[in-house]
């Protein structure tokens, strides 16, 4: 299935169609792509909801025993089958030996987070000492901003993209209020150009160049939750640091989706959740990154017992020996049951590799894009035909596996017709002028992406 580096997804689809002597939209193309998919066996590592178990399903339209078409990895990833095993291991240990579980087993409770942190190295492109597994995403963002955002009379702004995820927006607002700064003046929001949905990198870099001297922190999403735009992390980092800004990223929708190289890119700090593409379950254990160059210069504003060096932690003398870097930001002991679910998922990532996952994601997303354009582009000869537009950038390097779609038909109608047929997607509430609300399709959904699923998605009639 491996396309050449110079072959675009549409070219791959057309090549296979030519080999099979069929139309590119023929299901035989999807079946061939599935057959040649080197990651297809990873479906066996996940529980996939059955049609009959979905609340909105219409059993008269589906085979109740079939798997659902799960396009919701950008919101909640599927459950790895080993989660239950790992949870039962820790529950059994707790039942049999009580507090001795803090020090024994493959996940000692005192160091449970440390036992799996190495599995995150390749996913975010960092070394082990730069990664901390702790808290929830926004808690980590607050802890990082308390240390990296040190406003002065001349440098006091935080730069972010328009329509940032609400939790980021609220976190930045509250940090500014904490410092007594005026929100309107201190929160510098970059908006797309008139009539456009996504930001141009040249516009971002221009703002940094012109206003960088007044900006203390640049905080962007790695991948925008709504549009699916993948931001140019290395370019933004380089430009911001050249102007003396700290540069950080919320990687909630990027981690486990695209390849990241936080250390090599020189990113100052980052944070992420684990329940979307990392498949660690609702409210899963989040992560944080601080570049090693800050290990001895940037310290936590709030400290706790688990930021103390383990070798002297239990002396209980109240003399803090802070761990350098991100692990000094840990406050409380790791929640071992959350460690278990993340552990189960990260082991699968280690086996699959982000490079192979990204390669499949590019082809799978491109295939869905091809099918949508084939079936739902504007047709001058048929003005009544439903039109589907793709907000997400078409350039591979500017997107991950998510496509954000708008429909000429009422969104509730489209959404309900997908739901009752067992197609699980996300639907944000933000409206767009002249169009229905958008439907978000995360097409790699935790290693379980099928080309036949993308084919099925586009084959559902508007009249059903």
TrEMBL record:
Pfam family, one: Aminotran_5
Domain of life: Eukaryota
Modified residues (N6-(pyridoxal phosphate)lysine): 276
Pathway: Cofactor biosynthesis; NAD(+) biosynthesis; quinolinate from L-kynurenine: step 2/3; Amino-acid degradation; L-kynurenine degradation; L-alanine and anthranilate from L-kynurenine: step 1/1
GO CC annotations on file: cytoplasm
Catalytic activity, EC: 3.7.1.3
Gene3D superfamilies listed in its UniProt record: Aspartate Aminotransferase, domain 1, Type I PLP-dependent aspartate aminotransferase-like (Major domain)
The family this protein is said to belong to: Belongs to the kynureninase family.
Protein name in the entry: Kynureninase
Enzyme class: hydrolase
Reactions catalysed, as given in the entry: L-kynurenine + H2O = anthranilate + L-alanine + H(+); 3-hydroxy-L-kynurenine + H2O = 3-hydroxyanthranilate + L-alanine + H(+)
UniProt: pyridoxal 5'-phosphate binding residues: 137-138, 165-168, 221, 250, 253, 275, 305, 333
Cofactor section: pyridoxal 5'-phosphate
Keyword set, alphabetical order: Cytoplasm, Hydrolase, Pyridine nucleotide biosynthesis, Pyridoxal phosphate
Subcellular location: Cytoplasm
Subunit details: Homodimer.
Location of the Aminotransferase class V domain: 120-386
Example GO molecular function: pyridoxal phosphate binding
InterPro entries xref list: Aminotrans_V_dom (IPR000192), Kynureninase (IPR010111), PyrdxlP-dep_Trfase (IPR015424), PyrdxlP-dep_Trfase_major (IPR015421), PyrdxlP-dep_Trfase_small (IPR015422)
UniProt keyword Repeat present: no
Known role: Catalyzes the cleavage of L-kynurenine (L-Kyn) and L-3-hydroxykynurenine (L-3OHKyn) into anthranilic acid (AA) and 3-hydroxyanthranilic acid (3-OHAA), respectively. Has a preference for the L-3-hydroxy form. Also has cysteine-conjugate-beta-lyase activity.
Biological-process GO terms, alphabetical: 'de novo' NAD+ biosynthetic process from L-tryptophan; anthranilate metabolic process; L-kynurenine catabolic process; L-tryptophan catabolic process; quinolinate biosynthetic process
Principal place of residence: cytoplasm
Native source species: Equus caballus (Horse)
Gene name per UniProt: KYNU
